[in-house]
Amino acid sequence: NILDANKTACEYLDYSHEELLKMRIQNVISPENAAKIPERTRILSRQGSLVYESEFKRRDGEIIPIEVSSSVCEYNNTPAVLSTWRDLRERRQVESEKKKLQSQLQQAQKMEAVGTLAGGIAHDFNNILFPIIGYTEMTMDDVPKGSQAYKNMFEVLKAAKRAAKLVEHIL
């Protein structure tokens, strides 16, 4: 049973003080967490205090994540549990934003790595293409313009220049 509640608890849960004093804790926490009460009670009775995450359920049904710090105490000469609740919505939002930023950073790092790799490959291709283009042009100067060798060298030069354009796109 709820033995007492402060003004903030009443506001968070959207119940009056009188309404809360007629309720059990199972009425203000999510059903999933209500099922954990027996186990938490056993741990609390052994250890004397316990901190855990739970969720409470407002009058309107909204579920709010909370951190609960509970300790065994005496209330009006009766064994009781004093629980302090901390709203975790802001912390969860910050954690979610942090994960999103970490994901964006990882994506940026991947893109940077791909860019570095592409730049290295493009540099290597340029080192290969430079002598192909140079020697092809020099050889074309040495063979008759209408010959089959000239035509073949012209096709090699054309392909090498297309490859050079592709390297520019990679960069």
Please tell me about this protein's structure.
- The structure is a single chain.
- With 171 residues, this protein is an alpha+beta fold.
- Helix content is 61%, strand content 19%.
- The chain has helices at residues 7-13, 17-21, 31-34, 37-47, 89-142, 148-170, and strands spanning 49-57, 63-75, 78-87.
- Strands 1-2-3 form a three-stranded antiparallel sheet.
- Strand 2 (63-75) and strand 3 (78-87) form a beta hairpin.
- Helix 5 (89-142) packs antiparallel against helix 6 (148-170).
- The radius of gyration is 37 Å and the shape is rod-shaped.
- The protein starts with 6 loop residues before the first helix and ends with a helix.
- 6% of the residues are buried.
What secondary-structure arrangement, pairings included, does this model have?
Blueprint lengths: L6 H7 L3 H5 L9 H4 L2 H11 L1 E9 L5 E13 L2 E10 L1 H54 L5 H23 L1
Antiparallel strand pairs: 1-2, 2-3
Helix pairs in contact: 5-6
* End-to-end gap: 70 Å
Structural class: alpha+beta
User: For the CA atoms, what is the radius of gyration?
Assistant: 37 Å
Number of helices: 6
Strand line-up of the largest beta sheet: 1-2-3
Look at the structure and give the mean pLDDT: 92
Q: What portion of residues is helical?
A: 55-70%
Question: What is the element string, with H for helices and E for strands?
Answer: HHHHEEEHH
Key features?
single chain; 171 residues; alpha+beta; three-stranded antiparallel beta sheet; 6 helices; 3 strands; 19% strand; rod-shaped
